[in-house]
Amino acid sequence: MNGRVSRTDKLNGEFQKAIYEIITRRLNDPEITAMVSVLKVDTSKDLKNAKVFVSIYATSEEKKMTTFNAIKNNAKRIRYELSREMKTRTVPELFFILDGSIEYGDKMEKLFLSIKKEEENK
Questions:
Q1: Sheet of 35-43: strands edge to edge?
Q2: Which tens digit of pLDDT belongs to each residue from 66-95?
Q3: Cβ contacts of residue 120 below 8 Å, gap of 6+?
Q4: Closest Cα to residue 90, out of 4, 5, 11, 23?
């Protein structure tokens, strides 16, 4: 792509920021009790659908899933708010996906640190 950023890539970045703002500042859903990060938005070329990858930090799996389900249940409202904010003709339908890559990375880092400590203690 010659280092050029496509229109879809630009929109994905704008959607990512806007969706985060909507979830964290405008929804006011009591079911959203955990910390939410919008990691990535992947919009189809025709701009009809977008996968929204979210990571949720919670004290329990139950709180995490309650928060994720509340986000999924608010998808239409989030899309509506997004349409009010974005300067695009169409706003894609949003499909939220729970991404565990940060948790996995954290788990692996802890594992490597424990192996390193064991090696140092030998």
A1: 35-43, 49-57, 93-98
A2: 999 999 999 999 999 999 998 788 899 999
A3: none
A4: 11
